[in-house]
Structure formats: C-alpha cells, structure tokens
Amino acid sequence: MPEGRLWSSIRTIPASLRALQYALVFITVYGWGYLMAGAVLTTLPVIAAYIYLQKYMVEGLTAGSVKG
To answer: Where are the domains of the chain?
Structure first.
C-alpha cells in the first residue's frame, strides 16, 4: 500500500459519519438508522469517560474556585 494512500484513509469520527451518510444515499433512499447507530456508537465513549471522571472534574472545579 502506498504511504500517501494510508494517510488519506485516516479521518476524524464526524468526517467518517459524513462519508457514511453519503455512501448510504446510494444504498438506500435514507439510511437514517445506520447514521444514528454510528452517532450513538460515537458518543458512547465520551459519555462513559465523563461518568467515570465526573468526580475528578467536580473536585477540580471546586478546588479552583476557593480563594485564598
């Protein structure tokens, strides 16, 4: 595989979802189910990280707001 081709296939998640949306137009009239499934799978890691790190975020915000 040529080196330039490898880097052209790496995208961010929103760009990949947009490419999926354009690809689904040719497969079905509207591929909303596949697009929404991709959006949910994209947001799940962010939500899981927030739930896991919420305690530390609150501690940092309250420690930073104390004066003196």
So the answer is: 3-65
